[in-house]
UniProtKB/TrEMBL annotation:
Superkingdom to which the source organism belongs: Eukaryota
The keyword Transmembrane helix appears for this protein: no
Main location, first listed in the record: cytoplasm
Name of protein: Nuclear movement protein nudC
PROSITE patterns to which the protein is assigned, alphabetical: CS
Amino acid sequence: MSTSEKRYEDMTAEERVAYDKEEQARELVEQAQLPYRWRQTLQEVDVSIPVPKGTRGRDVEVVIKKKQIKVALKGQPALIEGELCKEVLVDDCTWTIDNQQEVNVHLEKSNQQTWWENVVTTAPKINTKKIQPENSKLEDLDPETRAMVEKMMFDQRQKAMGQPMSDEIRKQNIMESFKKQHPEMDFSKLEQNAPNSMSDDD
């Protein structure tokens, strides 16, 4: 059975890594083909739409409603138009033209605890479960939660590279420190049983 035919929960760790990389690549290609770029935090969505150099505000038609958006050069087909993924706070949404060659639309999310799968519902979806925590504002989190998120991010990167994770590194550091403090002791037997010799009190 190929990886694509397996359920994610039935995959091995190696198969999940390969599957995630493949899905990420596919997603990046789909997003790159859109006529705009977009990024999000839990609170907002920013959309950047390239336009011909020299474009001014009077040349652009921007309509933002609670669940709808349209951006077009006047008299031309829309650059982006359709039903928004989620509702927005219309009064807090804005748009500007950057260097007369890019329309930047700022959308304030109505529900600021959810990720969007796309800007408009007709566009390809991203996997919101795989969004990197960096995309949200880590500084908005309390210190304990932030430390937990950063540890998870570090462990995910280490695991993907086949490197020791934070708990293993911590145990190794404790052991190395103990060795330096007690050079007279013979640790060879202890090292043979290292995986079971130290319990994690967390």
